[in-house]
Amino acid sequence: MAVVAVAAGRLLRLRAAAAEGRWHRWRGDAVARSFLQPASARKDAAQLRQVAHFTFQPDPESHEYGQTQKMNLFQSITSALDNSLAKDPTAVIFGEDVAFGGVFRCTVGLRDKYGKDRVFNTPLCEQGIVGFGIGLAVTGATAIAEIQFADYIFPAFDQIVNEAAKYRYRSGDLFNCGSLTIRAPWGCVGHGALYHSQSPEAFFAHCPGIKVVIPRSPFQAKGLLLSCIEDKNPCIFFEPKILYRAAVEQVPVEPYNIPLSQAEVIQEGSDVTLVAWGTQVHVIREVASMAQEKLGVSCEVIDLKTIIPWDVDTVCKSVIKTGRLLISHEAPLTGGFASEISSTVQRWFFLLLLLKQHLQGWGCGSSGSALAWHACGPGSILSTTYQQRCCVRRELKSKY
Amino acid sequence: MAVAISVARVWGPRRGLGQATLLLLRQPMARGLARFHPPRQQQQQQQFSSLDDKPQFPGASAEFVDKLEFIQPNVISGIPIYRVMDRQGQIINPSEDPNLPQEKVLKFYRSMTLLNTMDRILYESQRQGRISFYMTNYGEEGTHVGSAAALDSTDLVFGQYREAGVLMYRDYPLELFMAQCYGNVSDPGKGRQMPVHYGCNERHFVTISSPLATQIPQAVGAAYAAKRANANRVVICYFGEGAASEGDAHAGFNFAATLECPIIFFCRNNGYAISTPTSEQYRGDGIAARGPGYGIMSIRVDGNDVFAVYNATKEARRRAVAENQPFLIEAMTYRIGHHSTSDDSSAYRSVDEVNYWDKQDHPISRLRLYLLSRGWWDEEQEKAWRKQSRKKVMEAFEQAERKPKPSPYLLFSDVYQEMPTQLRKQQESLARHLQTYGEHYPLDHFDKQLHLGGHVCSSC
């Protein structure tokens, strides 16, 4: 009996093994293997969920502004807000969930320190948050509004574009809401999908009257945010959410300002100009070092920082040197802010090329880019005489 | 146990964070910031208990009921309409008579009639092609003047576009009304907006903008700032019953209530939003009925009764400032004129309907009857005043016509406080264009500005 049972058992196991073998062959070995084996044993490590697509590169510590402290991005924001509320008694912070510290912890501790009339929750209504902020600012108080995600800024689009941006202009400077700053987490974080990852700066770039600013690091964030808060125009400050914890730097404890509308050349180069803002600055820095290493290409890297009004001169000066421009952003390609930069630079260089030919025709010689730069600098290229303009126009006509 | 539960109910609606969240938040923080205070959060937590069969929900303070019954919205007999005078200008209940001095009531009358005269002349001037556009205030003068008179002169006003009487009451000069409508060089708004988009910072009247209801949450923010500044000021926010359908209105009401702002929401319910009658604008009992839904003290008044408007606004102002809470006043009235010069209202309403309001229930007539019955006015004064007001308006009108328009270079200033480089380049580009092609533009009508203006930001 036992022998029969054992034999039967062995037979069943053999049949099972055969069946399993057939099943494996049918499904493909790789699938079976990965199904059965622990994750760490897998050869294809890309299956693992990536933490980030870049490495944050901190800037060297700045000794310009006194004592510094190690802070990540959200802590540098808290520090900027703390400084603002400390020195400006009219300053208030409001938005969804800011009272307990905020969903990204940017306002932790501020309500306890400054009081519930200065750091408070609002109902869940972005158009109300921005409208309310505009009203505060119209009376002269400093209004710091938080939109929980940049993806949710659109209900406030009318208040931002039709009201905040136009307040000073339409009233003939009788009224303004310059002391309004809107902050919002911005950009890819990996798992955010459609509604926690957006970069809407291009929508606002088309709106004169507001400023849009995007920092690349904690040190930059604090200085730029303080500048936005003190700026006499309504500002939107987008904070790359993937950097909230990932970016750590030494940041001054005291307040300091980084000027708006000034792009920064963070790495000099001679072959190509790379322009980006926010998180993507770190990506293109890696690209720059890879290009140097693998292709021997020397890249000049520019952090644009302010999207509107943007620093045309720094970018153009760089492209004069390198002759090539590459812009990288997370937002969709069509109508993205790269198109504004590239069309402005191309228009500028088209005129530059024609004028250079013209100046050479007049015997200015080909003393090259230095003279061309002086003659064609931002001021002079646009204040050429009537005659020169005619010549340029003739050139244009002859080419088309 | 019972004591604990009753104490918990006193703390009521405010709910602190749960224990779990307390733990989550106890994270390392940058030094120099205040530390988290657990005791306060725990204090605010309600003692939950099912021993007592009362509702524990944080969202509503209410009793249980075991009968299935829907609340029926009451539109048949809605919120009653407060009035002081009847249609013949007689005080109905003497205890409600504000007993205002003669001079003040005469100022009401003169403001309303001067506005009416200015409206007639400027409407005509649009018809003649002298100005591009105009909106009259016919029939609503009582809402403007009654409310404006009840405020302090420093109370901030956010309007929609049909509140010129508020500015008129605050003695805004005819010359400046006209300057804005003509967009001439004297316009403090620098000629940038369509007519009737007035603004005056000295008189605390925020510049009008075209998008509807956007001013509502802004007014709430301004009121919050006034509260923080202990300014003893109220903010008043005017809007029509149509604009009250906008999302911004909902936002404004909710924010005002939750943030406890000293604000008066003043709704001019004039029966129409361009061609849309109220039956197509809302199904509830008007705007006043929405107030209690937000937790806002609300009242409905006869907007054609200037004393009713005055009394309601006066009381609302007193309490809004004293108690830091919003008030909603829905002033029922009728838009006698067309929506604007771009509208012909005979396309959607009968001339008989308009005539009824013009003849039988007009704020100016009712006040005149009151003045006559008090012996404070008579036919002679009426004739003289009509002549005088018309003369004043015509003089201002003729002067405004003669003035040039502002310099075209003002297109570029005030976009930002400082003029950024790119805008300055655009301004220079216009200058060069006009140098070459100026003959094709009516530059003679424009102010000659020899230098390009605007403070230029050197770092931009």
TrEMBL record, chain B:
This is 2-oxoisovalerate dehydrogenase subunit alpha. It comes from the Eukaryota. InterPro entries: Alpha-ketoacid_DH_E1_comp, DH_E1, THDP-binding. GO terms for biological process: branched-chain alpha-keto acid decarboxylation to branched-chain acyl-CoA. It is found in: Mitochondrion matrix. It comes from Ictidomys tridecemlineatus. Residues 109-408 form the Dehydrogenase E1 component domain. Its main location: mitochondrion. Its EC number is 1.2.4.4. It is an enzyme of class 1 (oxidoreductase). Keywords: Metal-binding, Mitochondrion, Oxidoreductase, Potassium, Thiamine pyrophosphate, Transit peptide. Belongs to the BCKDHA family. Its cofactor is thiamine diphosphate. One of its GO terms (molecular function) is branched-chain 2-oxo acid dehydrogenase activity. CDD domains: TPP_E1_PDC_ADC_BCADC. The keyword Amino-acid biosynthesis does not apply. Together with BCKDHB forms the heterotetrameric E1 subunit of the mitochondrial branched-chain alpha-ketoacid dehydrogenase (BCKD) complex. The BCKD complex catalyzes the multi-step oxidative decarboxylation of alpha-ketoacids derived from the branched-chain amino-acids valine, leucine and isoleucine producing CO2 and acyl-CoA which is subsequently utilized to produce energy. The E1 subunit catalyzes the first step with the decarboxylation of the alpha-ketoacid forming an enzyme-product intermediate. It catalyses: N(6)-[(R)-lipoyl]-L-lysyl-[protein] + 3-methyl-2-oxobutanoate + H(+) = N(6)-[(R)-S(8)-2-methylpropanoyldihydrolipoyl]-L-lysyl-[protein] + CO2. Heterotetramer of 2 alpha/BCKDHA and 2 beta chains/BCKDHB that forms the branched-chain alpha-keto acid decarboxylase (E1) component of the BCKD complex. The branched-chain alpha-ketoacid dehydrogenase is a large complex composed of three major building blocks E1, E2 and E3. It is organized around E2, a 24-meric cubic core composed of DBT, to which are associated 6 to 12 copies of E1, and approximately 6 copies of the dehydrogenase E3, a DLD dimer. Interacts with PPM1K.
